[in-house]
Design a protein that fits this description.
This protein is an alpha+beta fold and about 210 residues long. About 45% of the residues lie in helices and about 15% in strands. Strands 2-3-6-4 form a four-stranded antiparallel beta sheet.
Amino acid sequence: MKIISPSFQIMDEINGMEILRKIELCGRVCYKSENAITEESAQKFIQNIIKSGHESVLEHEKITVRIICDRGVTHEIVRHRIASYSQESTRYCNYSKEKFDGELSFIKPCFWPEDDRNFITWKNVMQECEKAYLKMIKEGATAQEARSILPNSLKTEIIVTMNLREWRHFFKLRTANRAHPQMREVSIPLLKRFQEHIPVIFDDIIIDN
């Protein structure tokens, strides 16, 4: 059994200023003000369209991210309708196979330290799930049959593609203080990375403590 932490990988090469310039050009078509484009005009223009609520212009750019998390978190991610998803399938992935090292991987819960009684209980249950899963496979169950006993804590990978408007919506919901702690464990560092690479577009999203 493996216990790992959640992680993410941005799969696109991000050039923040090029993104802003493209969005500015698309947005200025609405006003036929392309003649106002300069080397420095994109940031102010995009600040103004976000402030005015004209966020449909942000849909002209998208970003793809690979997220490794538990399956419970992916149930929340896929509720964002305007997106494309490709997720590791427990129907077809047989975790007894060599490419998975013949074991299950689980995402470490962020709620408890490892010496906490709840963590110890969780770990014991995950070990029993792995033991039962591998026994079912050995006794002839298919992966799609044996998956019925797999828990939310099972590690999964999901590829997520959203346009920038939907990423804004995602971050507003999923970094908020009321969001699930394991969701925030992924969404907060991802938002910070977006803010580092792309000027303006995500600057107004404040992370709750």
